[in-house]
Amino acid sequence: MATTRLIALHQRKGKTIAHSLGERTDYAKNPEKTEKGELVTGYACDPMTADEEFLLQKRQYVHITGKNPKHDIIAYQIRQSFKPGEISAEEANRVGYELGMRFTKGNYSFIVATHTDRAHIHNHIIFNSTSMDGTRKFKNFWLSGRALQRLSDMVCLENGLSVIEPLPYSERPKRTTFPERESFREKICRDIDTILAKKPRDFPTFLQMLEAAEYEIKQGKNIALRGKSQKRFIRLSSLGDGYAEADLRAVISGTRAHAPKSKYARTEQPVNVLLNVQQKLQEKGEGYARWAKIYNLKQISKSVLLFHERGAETTDQINALVDKTLKRRDALQAQMAESEKRLVEIATLKKHIVNYSKTRNTYEAYRKAGYSKKFFEEHREEITLHKAAKKVFDELGLARIPKVKELSAEYAEILASKKKTYAEFRKVRDEAQELLIARQNLVSFSEAEPQEQDKSKKTEKAR
Questions:
Q1: Which CATH class name applies to 2-168?
Q2: Are 43 and 97 in contact (CB under 8 A)?
């Protein structure tokens, strides 16, 4: 039984092709792994000078074809591993030589090095990416690894060796447990939880304990941490609620309780619309219809529980709750629209105030010139901007022109209020959508129940 793998060998970064080839072939020919070089054989090359002969064939390829591609593959390696105790080292070398000859069809030079330093004997077959005659390069075709494995199985069978029998999918071993991978953020949160459990005296002591835990701390506007294997700093403010600098200071001072972040925090699933079982029965069959019925029962249960938690038990109470939520959503949306309208007005007004102040002297000179056409043509852009600004002031009915500083302060205040309103709007909007779906589910269920009863009665009469 032999397993195989085809590996493309690239030129190492910062190294020449000759140096890269030498490193790969030297590792394969390592005397400590190949019984002092006794288990190394070659085809169309001397194993001792294989890297130099490979390089000579590459130069011949460039000379014949005129091609000199960059970032090229310099060679290929076949790894062939055998079942422990099934084959001798000499036999494994012969089988590897036969596999290399068949796979390359005798067109590429290669060496076979059999390693015995592991519990399983394995071959390193390295063949040149350039053919011996220098006219072409080996093309790593689609599914070449599978073709190599089948060829290896054929060679093994011919030599009386076992092969891996492919099992049906249902009989293959299944992994039931998977290793948990902890992210850098999760590790930082876990270490912070551990340090807070020790109750540090103050925030500087907390930072010292982080440094003792091998964290590099970057202080500034936002404190950031970098662990031993991290490439970039991670801000405390990006770790979530309870891990920002202000939160940690509050926990250390005793004004706030720390709640460690749960890795597997369960999110509540939203209520979904019921499925039409009869339609799905016609489209996909009875199995899907059974699943759809169970799915609908779950959605009905979620809908009932949703209204029950909000104290709505009767139809009137449900309708009143939905209407109240919709009104709140619409009011918040209208409030945001007003804020957006005022923000646009302020931005426009600030622009015209700036234009008005910049062109004021020019317009006064134009007026003193008796509104001369020649003066107007010379200062058309400035005079036009001044008139446009004055027109806006008249349309707004401003008794006095406000200061830009006052408008900037009002703009910042409205913008902050709008952001706060938008956060509430999103929450109310999602809640309203969920309530509408839940109410529709209950209505659909109540309408479908009499139809099911009539259908069952007709079926009993027919019997």
A1: alpha beta
A2: yes
116 close to 39: Cβ distance less than 8 angstroms: yes
Is CATH 2.40.128 correct for 270-463? no
pLDDT higher for 295 or 196? 196
When computed from its CA atoms, the radius of gyration of the chain, rounded to whole angstroms, is 39
Q: Which residues pair with 8 in a beta bridge?
A: 76
Cα 25 to Cα 111: distance, rounded to the nearest angstrom: 8
Least confident of 248-252, 270-274, 447-451: 447-451
Q: What is the pLDDT of residues 272-294, one digit of tens each?
A: 666 666 666 666 667 777 877 88
DSSP 11: P
Q: Which residues contact 289 (CB under 8 A, 6 or more apart)?
A: 277, 278, 280, 281
Coil, strand or helix: which one is 108?
A: coil
Against a cut of 0.90, is the pTM above it? Answer: no
Q: How many Å apart are CA 248 and CA 196, to the nearest integer?
A: 9
Phi/psi at 168 (nearest 5 deg)? -60, 155
CA–CA separation, 415 and 421 (whole Å): 10
- Residue ranges of the chain assigned to CATH 1.10.287: 270-463
Residues 6 or more apart whose CB falls under 8 angstroms from that of 207 comprise 217, 223
pLDDT digits (tens, 9 = 90+) for 139-182: 998 899 999 999 999 999 898 888 888 778 777 777 767 777 78
